[in-house]
Amino acid sequence: MNISVPSLRVNDQLRTIAELIGNERRSSLTLAPEVARDDMREQIRKKIKNDDLYEGCRVAFRHNFQSVKLYFLCGLPGERPADLDGIVEMAETIARIGKEERGHWANVTASVSNFVPKAHTPYQWNAMQTREYFRNAHQHLRQRRRGSVTIKCHDVETSLIEGVLSRGDRRVAEAIELAWRRGARMDSWRERFDPQRWWHALADAGLDIPQLLHTPYDIDARLPWDHLSVKYGREFLEKEQARSAGQLQAMADAV
């Protein structure tokens, strides 16, 4: 049995969730801290503290949970080497807590997704990290892994194509049709996914891929999706973008 704790409720319930679920044998506890440092987590407005997460895992091991799966993001704006190192350190700390509570190292899996700036979010103006950045980050994480910790990283090519589809204009529709006509089917299956088919279709549709992926939008620029109405409008998103940028600057100044 796999128990997932909703991210917005983790701080309130994480310390007691295992007690609430019961004391029978459990398989895995799944949590989404997103990042491994408290200050970076404040920047993305996720109110989870590492101490709460560790204590929650300790209680879970006491209540017969066998393993923990963690979801992280790689490539967020302002990401530091310490944030990458923190992913492995957090996983190792939880594995060690398992040993303290159960007598053997717990199996901990850190699943790392690549950050894609999405429309209608405060990060819609931000650029996406490069292919080289993600590959180096993934290699760094795997090289630091030890013991019972497993690192799983999302496919870089898939994430980059998601980035183009997320940040592009109406020409993306033409590219999607081109890819489909050229044989793109069931591409969420790894064995069916051909990234070169997509890159060629995007280029043939006239999209400047480096510009779309790796160049930030000006805060006052008209965005391709501005004509769509959303619950939280542009004014709110601009304020959140400014708040995030201010938090990042404060983090940089503190180094």
Description:
With 255 residues, this protein is an alpha/beta fold. It has eleven helices and five strands. A five-stranded parallel β-sheet has the order 1-2-3-4-5. Helix 8 packs across helix 9. The N terminus is likely disordered.
Label this structure with key terms.
49% helix, alpha/beta, 12% strand, 255 residues, five-stranded parallel β-sheet
Question: How are the elements arranged and paired?
Answer:
Elements: E1 2-4, H1 10-13, H2 17-21, E2 28-34, H3 38-43, H4 50-62, E3 67-74, H5 81-102, E4 107-114, H6 131-144, E5 149-153, H7 156-167, H8 171-181, H9 195-204, H10 209-214, H11 234-254
Parallel strand pairs: 1-2, 2-3, 3-4, 4-5
Summary, kept brief:
With 255 residues, the chain is of the alpha/beta class. It is built from 11 helices and 5 strands, in the order βααβααβαβαβααααα.
